[in-house]
Amino acid sequence: MAELAAVQEGRRGRPTTLLDLDDEHYAVAGLEIGVDRVLSAVYTLRGRELLRTERVVESESVNPRGLLRHAQIALREALDQSASGARRLLGVGVSAPGLVDASTGTVKYVPSLGWRDVALRAGVEEALGGRAPVLVDADANFAALAERRARLRAGQEASSLVYLTGTYGISAGVLADGRLWRGGRGMAGEVGHLIVDPDGPVCVCGRRGCFEARAGLPAITAEALEPSTRRGGRADLPAAIDELVIRARSADQRVVATLTRAGTWIGRGAAALAAVIDPRVIVLGGHYARLVPWLLEPARRAFAEAQLVPGDDVPALEASAGADWATAEGAALAVLKSLTEGEQALPKGPTGQTGAEVR
Amino acid sequence: MSRGADATQRTMLRHLVDYGPLSRPELGDGVGLARATTSTVVNALI
Fold first, then answer.
1. Which residues contact A237 (CB under 8 A, 6 or more apart)?
2. Confidence tier at A122 by pLDDT (50, 70, 90)
3. Would you say residue A251 has pLDDT above 90?
4. What is the 3-state secondary structure (H, E, C) of A10-43?
5. Rounded CA gap, A148 and A155, in Å?
6. What is the spatial distance between Cα A240 and Cα A286, in angstroms, rounded to a whole number?
7. Based on the number of CB atoms within 10 Å of its own CB, is A185 exposed (0-12), middle (13-18) or buried (19 or more)?
8. Which domain holds residue A301?
9. For residue B33, which residues of chain A lie inside 8 Å, CB to CB?
10. Do A88 and A223 share a domain, yes or no?
């Protein structure tokens, strides 16, 4: 699973031998099942991308069976990609945008999809024909893992972190001491339906004033864009984000005012999370990352105002660096983590070399 | 492989996954592994 590579550091002296993950014989795959699309990616163990696909799901197919069909196609491509490079697929991570019981691989509830108790892992395992282990988790948890690695490699704080997804809903991936914090029932982080404004608008869950009814992207686009520019159904959220960015850049007052209000609600919601979890950093990910130029400052202001003890040592509110593919990348990374954490047996080395030495 | 060596392998792999490639000094200083331990474990990994 690892290999040695000689690296010449400077012009003189013996080359340094580095130990690194094997980049040739294995692959890991990540699948993000979203409300309107299935993203899939295959990586080498070092994180080199081998395949990336995005399938937009028509609204009539937004049901467990329809989304699984798209996921199956994506999985077949991942298997083909691995096989064509004679790589062994070590596993597939699959995310869903809602409450997930990772221990059983069951999607408990996704309000935006109307899913309840969907046996996602079993469905994906069947599609794979048992050719690779399958991990299922909430999108925010996987995205938090990808964010953690990116931050570690950039020398940034990563052990105590909350990753807020901004997709059709809002959920949080919580890392405490560098590990995912799942809570007592394994479903921590479903913050989108935290009631932040009891007199606020009705949410998709049927209640009033949920965090995502105030700061979720469907709420933002509904408020900022005329119906004719919302481009119809929910499959068009990325297009609506494009439109928001274009208009915000041209200082469209309605759009900028809506983003400022949404940023304020994000800051208030983030402050509530900070009060409970006390992370070092809260990261705005998903589609929020594209809207950061307009969301972040009002969010930071509201966040600072809500602190019980204001000052420099409050948690940082920051934008994610690699938001669009963070969930799929994190899903693949979770497969590697399952090996390093002892949840899966390590594969035997493919080369059978002996006498290796790291200098 | 013994349980201890398996745990050492996983420690190394965890570091590689999180931070990227490792040199000998980093195996000692960064991961905290003794030289005598690592050669066998590296051989088993590659």
1. A35, A36, A167, A168, A217, A218, A221, A287
2. very high
3. yes
4. CCCCCCEEEEEECCCCEEEEEEEECCCEEEEEEE
5. 10
6. 14
7. exposed
8. 157-319
9. none
10. no
- Show which residues on chain B lie within 8 Å of chain A, measured between beta carbons: 6, 9-10, 12-14, 16-24, 27, 38-39, 42-46
Q: What is the CATH number of the domain that holds A300?
A: 3.30.420.40
ipTM over 0.85: no
Structure tokens at A59: 């609204």
Judge contact between A37 and A139, C-beta under 8 A.
no
Length of chain A counted residue by residue = 359
- Co-location of A214 and A305 in the same domain: yes
Q: What is the pTM of this model?
A: 0.90
Residue A177, domain member (yes or no): yes
Is A57 part of a structural domain of the chain?
yes
Of A2, A3, A333, the CB nearest to B13: A2
pLDDT at A8: 61
d(CA A225, CA A228): 8
Residue A1 has pLDDT above 80, yes or no: no
Phi/psi for A49 (5° steps) reads -80, 130
Average pLDDT over residues A162-166: 93
pLDDT above 50 (res A83): yes
Give domain status of residue A148, yes or no. Answer: no
Shortest alpha-carbon distance between residue A176 and chain B (Å): 16
Whether residues A169 and A104 fall in one domain: no
Give A199→chain B minimum CA distance, Å.
44
Helices and strands of chain A, counted as H and E runs? 9, 15
Residue A288 near residue A162 (C-beta atoms within 8 A): no
Residues B11-33 pLDDT 10s: 888 889 999 888 777 777 666 66
